[in-house]
Model the fold of this input.
Amino acid sequence: MWHYDPPLRDMRFVIDEVLGAPDAWARMPAFDGLDADTAAEVLAQAGKFAAEVLAPLNGPGDLAGCAWHEGQVTTPPGYPAAYQDFVDGGWPALACDPDCGGQGLPQLLNAALYEMLAAANHGWTMYPGLLHGAYECLHAHASGELRERYLPKVTSGEWLSTMCLTEAHAGSDLGLLRTKAEPRADGSYAITGNKIFISGGEHDLTGNIVHLVLARLAGAPPGTKGLSLLLVPKILPDGTRNAVHCDSIEKKMGLKGSATCTMRFEAATGWLLGEPNRGLAAMFLMMNAARLHVGLQGLGHLEVSTQNALRHAAERAQSRAPRKPAGAPDADADPIVLHPAIRRTLWTLQARTEGGRVLAYWAAQALDEAAAHPDEGERRAANDRATLLTPVVKALLTELGHHGADDALGVWGGHGYIHEMGIEQIVRDSRIAMIYEGTNEIQAIDLLLRKVLPDGGVRLGQLLDWAGAQAEGATNAQRLRQGLQALRECADALVAGAAADPEWPYRAADDFLHALGEALLACAWARSEVAARHALAAGAPDAAFYEAKLQRTRFQADYLAGELPRYLAAVERSRAELPFLPVLG
Amino acid sequence: MWHYDPPLRDMRFVIDEVLGAPDAWARMPAFDGLDADTAAEVLAQAGKFAAEVLAPLNGPGDLAGCAWHEGQVTTPPGYPAAYQDFVDGGWPALACDPDCGGQGLPQLLNAALYEMLAAANHGWTMYPGLLHGAYECLHAHASGELRERYLPKVTSGEWLSTMCLTEAHAGSDLGLLRTKAEPRADGSYAITGNKIFISGGEHDLTGNIVHLVLARLAGAPPGTKGLSLLLVPKILPDGTRNAVHCDSIEKKMGLKGSATCTMRFEAATGWLLGEPNRGLAAMFLMMNAARLHVGLQGLGHLEVSTQNALRHAAERAQSRAPRKPAGAPDADADPIVLHPAIRRTLWTLQARTEGGRVLAYWAAQALDEAAAHPDEGERRAANDRATLLTPVVKALLTELGHHGADDALGVWGGHGYIHEMGIEQIVRDSRIAMIYEGTNEIQAIDLLLRKVLPDGGVRLGQLLDWAGAQAEGATNAQRLRQGLQALRECADALVAGAAADPEWPYRAADDFLHALGEALLACAWARSEVAARHALAAGAPDAAFYEAKLQRTRFQADYLAGELPRYLAAVERSRAELPFLPVLG
Done:
């Protein structure tokens, strides 16, 4: 039956051997004293929490859902207790500043933690999912009494937090927001407006909820340049209830254990965070980390779908396979893991999962180096890398997560359509990750239009150089370099073509992001191959693990290397005019 | 808000102008007197039923679901009354033999009817969905009293029917079935066994349910050659309840209005249909039609998703578009239908929907010609065509339906994840169509291993000749012929390569099916282009409709023509060895 087995062995391989993170930590004073074994122990404990506490609540939480009654929300059975365990374990503070009560561990380990939480129970993970972002906002912008009152409790997770952005008429386009904040004599503001799709806007997990609300001060300019960020608690410092109301929760495709709230602020009391009209900038501070975390949800969906599909395929027998391993018993029906179509699905899922993990962890490592590397040039280079990797990780991994879960469902055949098997829930839960924190189409535009074209492809070229260096020493390094070169030429063509047809990059953006993603995945596998060969040459004890890595490297090269040229060709195709739609009556 | 607008105009275009069906009917005595206007009137009435009676029950039926209580199943509110309307309208008998109470209309019109039913309410449509198959089984195999008692009521739909195949351990592999049938002295049989995933195994729509059960007679050979087909009614001829029990219904991803039943036969009384041990052959009689109907469900999902996404995109305004049609108003936010990423999604959905309709209706027309053409050679050629088209239509259109709905969901952004918008239900409902009636992987194996390779590609060559003739006169006929030739060479390579590596075709089957599907879709668009040009040249009144067709033809050629080479390259890639999976502990 469905369960979650934390992929600790592969995480350790990626962190220690592919990324060489322990060596990197040794060079960064902020991570002084952190070594591979300590990191592994942290992840083992995190995996135990995910597998033993969260995973068993996932299916039942989907069936029970959240209940709304007169403004109160009840989460599924077991959710509050699991959250208390999470806080007691110190998990919210893992990557927070030690000066504020945090443990000061790298974002990389926090990434591995959140991959496991989302894999085990994405619905539950929505509650603490925004905590780190709120911590970063408060850490950067709150001062004085506000900081003293809210930062420690958000760091520890004693109080949960929300991000109140979306309004019914304003989703991707925050410039249209209408919620208002009016100053009061005591320095607080009265916030009035309606917000929708607020994850954890109301729940029974913590005694207070700290809402971070985007609103418009009186007289602020229109558009995104007139938005300010305000802290609006559910319970006011004097212990009374603030005028913040949850009017309903949504009936959704998935994440039914997560309360998605319609919120009404009726002259609710709040305080400005950061400068007036700079709310979006304050929020964008945490955007790379937030988008990376959504990508990690996709990775978690892919991992949990893959491992369960593999177990099911090894157990389920149907029909004879056309070919069998030497010594396999003769039977009326063989395990479906032997059937070529199923084998191909499973190999693909494994290659995507493990390659995707390298890609996501590269981005997390870049965030750590951007923040904590002692050398300023390295910090800047790492920041550039994180900036380009982030939209790719967000869009590509959420897509691989959702589509991978959907493909995995097919391994169960008709049984996959039944709730108790577990996989159909992952298909439903995973869909939203392609949309929230900026839709995947917006990620693609962010990458190409805001990050590649404006500097004529310079930063992209640096990323590709870096990726090429990762592939050094791999069997097909030469072919990978050709692929990276083709990608460079594709970007050059877009730079050149955008002048004559400014809309072309918009039409090409999705395919360009996928092309870059495929190139990076190929480099991730090349780097994994080199690390696996190195371990085998050094006589590592678990040779089977490394041999399997080499087999998957070959699968990637044989079966998946066609993806990059496919997307490059699609970019080229999108030069063709795309007319406006004739909407027929 | 979500609604279903029957695509009558496009149906008429495909049936009359692309397929030239009215001329074909005039050559078949079975359809004597049927003309284009009569057919259009039938479809208009069917569309009215689908849009006005079924569509409003779709969302509420998903929320209400079915209820099981002590063996009884209650369907969602409105389902029984809608079914009574359906029977009163004579819809079940549309394409049945007039000698048995049917209306004798072509399968082609029945196909259009079922496309609309599935688009409006797939869950409800599961109940009558198996009726035509049961009719065909009884029509071909029931005689004497059995025929007299059951055929008229199944033809009229007064009694609904099931197909009881799957058992817990036997899904795709029916050879493993264990349900037993023991002869009794009176010529009846005692049927004992457990079946799962029985759609409509129990419900409150009709007074009796006619179960068609695959079971094994005592002493029958093992495997599929020992299966017999038995008719087992819920209510026996003397009015008493047969020993057929519904023990539970499944909690599923979608189709929640359709009761998926676990059935227990406890020495239930039944009668043999057809010859002993020939049960599978009896059922396979209706397989082409049944698989076509599943493909039509995919087409329905695609149509209803596309038209609703288009309406939503025309209404929802977010952000400024980078380019606008001349004369569009200047506003803070433009309708998202103007944004390139959304436009591309919508164009793709439309091209897939309308091309898919031609493909599906070609298959339906081939079934009609195979059954009713006066010339034996034409009947055989049409049958060969139907045989090859069927697995392509089933697999390709269910995939386009599910993935198309999933892509369409993105047009709503976060709102797409909410039940009341309608689209997330289509994503859930559509997934099962890729699995039942033979999984799509089995369709691919059926196509390549059973239908293309055994005759060395002769029948495939005839289909490709026919497809090439369809494309005659189109703008890019030359390029399409090259594509068809490449596909021929791909099949030749598979024929040749299968000798040295018999597993290769199994690894290549999915990509081969997609390659053939893409080639056929391209020909479908070429044929549509020719028909549209013809209409414009003849001065047809609604020029805008035909101009839009030409625009979509160009979109297909510009943006989607890369799909065929992509799948051909993937077939070539799959020559690479695909090792057995190292299942790591």
Q: What stands out?
A: Residues 5 and 123 of chain A are 18 Å apart (CA to CA). The beta strands of chain A are 67-69, 72-74, 160-164, 180-183, 189-199, 209-217, 228-233, 244-249, 260-273. The two ends of chain A are 51 Å apart (CA to CA). Residues 376-411 of chain A form the longest helix (36 residues).
